[in-house]
Design a protein that fits this description.
By secondary structure, the protein is an alpha/beta fold. The chain is built from five helices and five strands. It has a single domain, classed as 3-Layer(aba) Sandwich (Rossmann fold), CATH 3.40.50. 46% of the residues lie in helices and 17% in strands.
Length: 129
């Protein structure tokens, strides 16, 4: 099944350069409908205002971490099923387990390229399709 190129995607990262990189990679894959938020709280406001088909969030942010954002997204009935990919520079087993237990769809470890990002998105949607 092909993923809708008009899928609304929210990229959440407090590092604007990383947001630009992910946005560029998504565009190369074919996704144009990309919004961004600089932290978990800003992301929640956007999520409440607009339905997203995919959330890609950094783990390490202040004041709300990507993990806390994931927990809030999963706790809300309206967004509980939204695919959520966590991005981190650390591949700590504890973090991976905690994120999986909280319902993360998949995990991206920095640095990554277009091919890896596309594989993760395809995998997430193959599971939910």
């Amino acid at each position: 099944m092909a993923i809708d190129p008009n899928l609304a995607i929210l990229v959440v990262d407090d590092y604007s350069t990383m947001v630009r990189i992910i946005r560029k990679l998504l565009k190369q894959i074919g996704f144009e409908n990309v919004d961004e938020a600089s932290n978990g709280e800003a992301a929640l406001e956007k999520i409440r205002a607009k339905p997203y088909g995919l959330i890609i969030s950094d783990w390490n942010m202040e004041p709300m971490t990507g993990f806390q954002l994931l927990q809030k997204v999963r706790a809300d009935g309206a967004t509980a099923a939204t695919p959520f990919i966590m991005v981190t520079a650390e591949s700590k087993a504890d973090n991976v387990v905690a994120a999986r237990n909280a319902g993360v769809s998949d995990y991206l470890i920095k640095p990554f390229n277009e091919k890896i990002l596309k594989e993760k998105i395809d995998k997430v949607f193959a599971v939910t399709a």
